Amino acid sequence: MPSGGLVFQSVILGLLLGGLYALLAAGLTLYFGIMRVVMIAHSAFLILAAYLAWWSHERLGTDPLLSMIVTVPLFFGAGVLFQRLLLSRLRPITLTMMSVLLTFAVALIIEGLLGYAFTGTQRRIQLSYGSASIGLFGARIAVVKLIAFGLAVVALGGLYLLMKRTTFGWALRATIQHGDAARLVGIDTDRVAGYGFGLGLATAAVGGTALSLDTTIYPSLHWHWIGPLMAIIVVGGLGSVPGAAAAAVLLGLMQSLLQIPMGTTWAQTIFYLALFATLAFRPQGFFGGRLAQRF
Amino acid sequence: MRSSLRRTRWATALAATTILALGACSDDGGDGGQASDDPIVVGISLPLTGDFSEPGKGVQEGYEAWAKITNDKGGLLGRQIELKILDDQSNADRVVADYEQLIGSDKVDLVVGPFSTRLVVPSARVAEEYGMLFVEPAGAAKEVFEQGFKNLFYAAPAVANDHYNHLAEYLIAMPPDKRPQTVAYAAMDDPFAQGTAYGLKAKLEAAGFKTVVDEVYPPNTTDFGSIAAKIAASKADMLVGGSQYQDGVNLIVALQQLAYQPKLAAFSGAPTNPEFAKAIGNKTEGVLSPTGYTPGAPYESNKEFVEKFKAQFGKEPEEDQANAYTTGQVVAAAVTAAGCAEQGDCQKKLVDWVHANKVETVVGPLSWDAAGKPQGAHMIQQWLGGSIKIVLPEPVKEADLLYPKPAW
C-alpha cells in the first residue's frame, strides 16, 4: 500500500507532466484540425527548439527562456513557409497519407542536421536552479517543472484566446469546421491555413524550450516523443486544443499514478491502451468530437 | 582507370601469392620447428563504422598499441606481429563473413574478438567452428557465457553481474548497526546495465540488506520524476543505479529536485563520463561507480602500457583501449607458453593453456572458468574533492571510501 505522501507527490508530478504533454501536443492537433496533415516532424521541431535553447545558453550564457524571443517568430515563419511551399502542393485527396511521408522526411533531415551540427553527444542545460524545488505539504515541486508548466498554461491560454476572441481565430475555426463554406463567406483559407501551421510550429518553439529545461537532449530523442503525442491528440479528439489538453493532463496523471504499482514499463503503455480504446469505441476522441467542431 | 585496374590485379596476385606462401610456411612449421621469420598475422574484425564506431576505434587503438609495444621488444617467438583489421560496420552478418574470411581464406595465425556482445557472440561461433582460440575484449553480458563456447575468454576483470563485488564485500563487512539498512535499485532494461545492479542486489539481499525499491525502466524513458518519487518516498539509505549515461544523470537530477539524500549512491555508467559533473551541477561528491580499468592502476605491465600508449596516441588509454591491450596480453602469454601460433593443433594447446593458467595484465591478474568467464571483480571508484579516485579493493586503492556521502 503506497503512502499518502507518495500518492500526493505523484499527483503533483503527474499534473506537471500532463501540462508539458499538453503543450507539446497542441501543435499536432492544430495541424490535423486545419488541414488533415499528420505532422510526424513536430517532435523533431521540439528537439530543434530545445537545441537552440541549449546552444544560446552555452554560447551566450543567457537564460534558455530568452531564446524564445528568437525561436517563436522564427518557427512561426518556418511554419507558414512550410505550409505554403510544401504541404499546399500535395493533392488534397491523398494529403493525409502523403503528409506522413513528407513530414517523416523532414524529421529525418532535422535529426541529421542536429547530429551534424551538435554531434550525437547528449546535452543538458546546466541551470543554477536545475535541482531547486519548493515544498508543498510534504511534497516537492521542482522549479524547472513549474516553469515548464507555466509556459504550457500561458501558451495554451494564449492559443485559446486567439481562437475564441480574434477575427483570425474565427477564420481559423471556420477553416477547421468547413473549408468550402469558409471560402464562400470570403475567408482566404489558404492564407489562414498557412498561419495556422505557423501557429502550431510556434507552440513547438515554446514546447521545445520547456522540454530543454529538465531533459537530456540528443538528436534522435524526437522518436520517443512522437508516439505518446500522437496518442494524446487522438484521445483528445483531432483538432481540439482543449481536448488535447484534457487528454494530456489525464494521461500524464494516470502514467504517474500507475507507476506506483506497475513500474515504468507498464505505466507507459497507458498511452497505447488509451489509443486503442479511443479508436475502438470513440474514434472522434473522448474529449473532442462535437467539442472539436465548436472548438 | 586502366592503370588502377591493373594495379588492383597486381595487388590481388601478390596477395594470393603471399597467402599461399604463408599457408605453406605454417604447414611446414606445424610440427614444431619454429625457425620461421614470417610475421604472426592476427585477424580482427572491428566496428569501425556504424553504431559502435566510437568504442570500436578505441579497441583498434588498444590492439595497435599492443602490436607496437610487443614488436618493439622483439615480437612473439622472435616473430613480428602483424594486425589484419577488417571493418564490420557494426553489423552481425558482416562480422561472421569477416571472420570466415580471416580464418578460412586469409589463413591468419590468430584471431581476437570485436567490440560488444552483439558482435562477439556470432564471431565466437565462427572461431569455435574452426577450433581457434578466441580471446575477446567486450562481451560482458552473461549471455556470452551461456552459449557453450569452449574457446572463448573475456579479457576483462569481471562480467556485468560481478562489477559491484568489491562494494558488496565492503558493505557486508561493515558493522550491522553502521551499514545502510535499506536499498533502492533502479536499472535500465538492458542486459549490461541491469546485470550490474542485480549482481549487487543478489549479494546484499543474501546478507540481509532490505530492498525497498526495485524499478526497471525501458531504455527510452524520458521522465524520471515518478521513479524518483518512489525512491524518495522510500527514504532508502542507499541507492544503486544500473544506468548508462543519460538515464543516470536524469535520475540524479530528478532525485535532487525531490530533496532525496542517500547515504551512499552508486551508478554503473554515468559517473565516468567526462560531462557527468557538469550535468548534475557539480554535486558529485561521494558518488560511486565500478570501473574495469584505470591508468593509475599499479600493475607492472600497466605502467609500461600507459607510458607507451601516451607516446603513440598522445592521450591516456581508457577502458576500451585497455581491454583490447589485455586481450593481446592474454594471447601473447598463451603463444609464449605453447611455443606456437598457427591454425590447427596449436590452437588446442593455446586454449588449454589459457584454461589452466592465470595471466598478469594491465587490469590485474586474470583467470577464467570453463565458460571463459573472468573470475574477478571491478574496482570501485568514488568522486572525492572533484576528481575520481579508486577506493576499493584495498591493495589498489588511492583513497578511503567516504561514507556517508555528503548531500547533493
TrEMBL record, chain A:
It is found in: Cell membrane. InterPro entries: ABC_transp_permease (IPR001851), BCAA_transport_permease (IPR052157). Keywords: Amino-acid transport, Cell membrane, Membrane, Transmembrane, Transmembrane helix, Transport. It comes from the Bacteria. The chain crosses the membrane at residues 6-30, 37-54, 66-87, 99-119, 139-163, 192-213, 225-251, 263-281. GO terms for molecular function: transmembrane transporter activity. It is a multi-pass membrane protein. GO terms for cellular component: plasma membrane. The keyword Disulfide bond does not apply. It holds the Pfam family BPD_transp_2. Belongs to the binding-protein-dependent transport system permease family. LivHM subfamily. This is Branched-chain amino acid transport system permease protein. It comes from Actinoplanes digitatis.
From TrEMBL, chain B:
Residues 39-383 form the Leucine-binding protein domain. Keywords: Amino-acid transport, Signal, Transport. This is Branched-chain amino acid transport system substrate-binding protein. GO terms for biological process: amino acid transport. The keyword Magnesium does not apply. Belongs to the leucine-binding protein family. Residues 1-26 form the signal peptide.
